[in-house]
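Entry type: protein chain
Record version: 2
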Amino acid sequence: NEDPNSYLLKHSPEALEKLIYPQKISASSAIHRQASSFNRKPVEDGFMIEHNQRRYLIRGIEGSPNKLKANLRAENHRKFHIDTVDLYNAKARAQFIKDATILFKEEQEVVEQDMQRIILAVEEHIAAKKDDADKPIVTMRDEERRQAISFGKQSNLIETILKDIALCGFIGEDMNKLVAYLAMTSRKMENPLSILIISGSGAGKTSLQDAVLSLCPEEELIKLTSLTGKALFYKKELSLTHRVLAVEEEKGAEEADYAIRNLITAKELVIEATIKDVYTGKLTTMTNTVKCNTAVFKTTTNPESNPETKTRFIILSVDESRAQTQRILEYQRESETPQGYLKKLERDLITTKHRNFQRLLKPITVLNPYAKLLTYLDDRMSVRRDHPKYLQLIKAIA
């Protein structure tokens, strides 16, 4: 029931290209098809590829944006040639191609095509290893799963969440804790909430952020001390999707203010940069896109921080009253007692329970039949950004 061209575009762009331009096949697609024609076998510390009795053993791979070194062994029956080659270095490639051409008694063009296949295969090998390293292995036992489900279905869930955060080391300030927990949970949503905690030095803003985010699954939390201006633009496409990005102190991310604003508002970061083509040596442009359904957490001591940035966040201010100070001092003293020690031991069980509960949460469509009956202040321009946060907070609770 789908338009044929739309179907082909989705499932086989190359087939569509052939249909529209029968004589046109992109060089990149052709090289990838050549690479896939190789018979590839994994070996210790690398892999072996073989095509038409030409065999290459590739091991000791070291990769960076400017260098791609590997130990290459070209084999032809009982004869072989071996060398360590920087595949991104034209002279090193040319010398290996020359030696392999003599070994295989082939035309130079054939071995040059082999080299293109080798480069693609090595790049894919590095990318696959990096992807595997980036994917944390999270296992949940049946008992942990049952406990997480039971925790999420209890009628007094909000009260239990607040109690657990207190046991994790942050007492009082129930409203701040609850809003922060809901914002952390909103990372699963299409439009996550973001939190900016403002207080004086030593008032406990970092403690509040750390206590709440300790309950977020580690694989969905990116916690940074400092952030440079362009760093987020070069992340992998989905590396920020449905994640929490936490910056310990706003001052450590001042250069990234523009990126963070766009991350929250546009849900996407796009950068185009000039790079050198590894095959031709010519300058070309590269576009990198990062999807950003991300809940951002920041703390600051500066109440006059950039208003353009502040309007993207829910602002929380820490309780700096004498009564709260007394509660904190009492808690610090209690932590030195045997009862306090037992509570510390309980923290690991609490964090495991919450992280498993958070892993089980799935995004759903939330419709509010009473939305038109809601009211909101309309006496200043900033409410145009505040009102959507209010509506998203309701969705996060649901």
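Comment: Residues 109 and 219 are 46 Å apart (CA to CA).
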